[in-house]
Amino acid sequence: SAVISQKPSRDICQRGTSLTIQCQVDSQVTMMFWYRQQPGQSLTLIATANQGSEATYESGFVIDKFPISRPNLTFSTLTVSNMSPEDSSIYLCSVKTDGPYEQYFGPGTRLTVT
Amino acid sequence: GDSVTQMEGPVTLSEEAFLTINCTYTATGYPSLFWYVQYPGEGLQLLLKATKADDKGSNKGFEATYRKETTSFHLEKGSVQVSDSAVYFCALRRTDSSYKLIFGSGTRLLVRP
């Protein structure tokens, strides 16, 4: 299994500012992902965080808005840039461990943009 | 593209009632199927999984069978408890090497004493 922590757990931010969310895993993992869960909605994959190279973004998400870093195999950050109220969501970090089907989620960061 | 469809919630049951949450999927190939649970204020937890046709995943009294002929993965529990109140997400993982999860819309379950 993997234990995942995220910081901050929640935040309230002003429109036009940026927030960086951290994801820390207690063991080295091959793959890390960032998901968004808008209020009352399901989860949508933002991007796959690649260690040592640029993240792979899903359709509808761009690097300028959601820059991602992954400096090593246990840590990643997601920045939500130039925020608007539509960015109010829960952002979740997810990791895939060495098992073929095991994927774990962090507790999430609840972001409110005013 | 690949997609997952879940029944609309909320589902409200009395304690010890039988639970079914319907889930159907559209996908190419043979995806792996999952049920995740999100308790209030918490992140997602893997509840159970099935990786090939006719597999039955089970955990904590919950079961789901991978039915390829009906492209379904319905979640069932014979006797729900108040502590089962949560949001349940059905998900598939594509058969490519991306390991991306595609989620259904989630079904909120409320169990009353």
Key structural traits:
heterodimer; A: 114 residues; mainly beta; seven-stranded mixed sheet; 11 strands; B: 113 residues; six-stranded mixed sheet; 50% strand; globular
Tally of helical segments of chain B: 0
Give the class of chain A from helix and strand content and strand pairing: mainly beta
Radius of gyration of chain A: 13 Å
Q: What's the average pLDDT of chain B?
A: 93
Class from secondary-structure proportions of chain B? mainly beta
SSE order of chain B in H/E notation?
EEEEEEEEEEEE
Distance between the termini of chain A: 37 Å
* Whole-angstrom Rg of chain B: 14 Å
Task: Tell me the major beta sheet of chain A.
Answer: 7 strands, mixed
What integer is the average pLDDT of chain A?
93
For the secondary structure, the number of strands of chain A is 11
Overview of this structure, please?
- The complex is a heterodimer of chains A (114) and B (113).
- Chain A has no helices and eleven strands.
- Chain A has 114 residues and is mostly beta strands.
- In chain A, the strands form two sheets. In chain A, strands 2, 4, 5, 6, 9, 10 and 11 form a seven-stranded mixed beta sheet that branches.
- In chain A, 33% of the residues are buried.
- The mean pLDDT of chain A is 93.
- Chain B is mainly β.
- In chain B, the strands form three sheets. In chain B, strands 2, 5, 6, 10, 11 and 12 form a six-stranded mixed beta sheet that branches. A four-stranded antiparallel beta sheet of chain B has the order 3-9-8-7, with no helix packed on it.
- Chain B has strands at residues 3-6, 11-14, 19-21, 23-26, 32-38, 44-50, 56-59, 62-65, 75-77, 86-93, 101-103, 107-112.
- At the A-B interface, strand 5, strand 9 and strand 10 of A face strand 5, strand 6 and strand 11 of B.
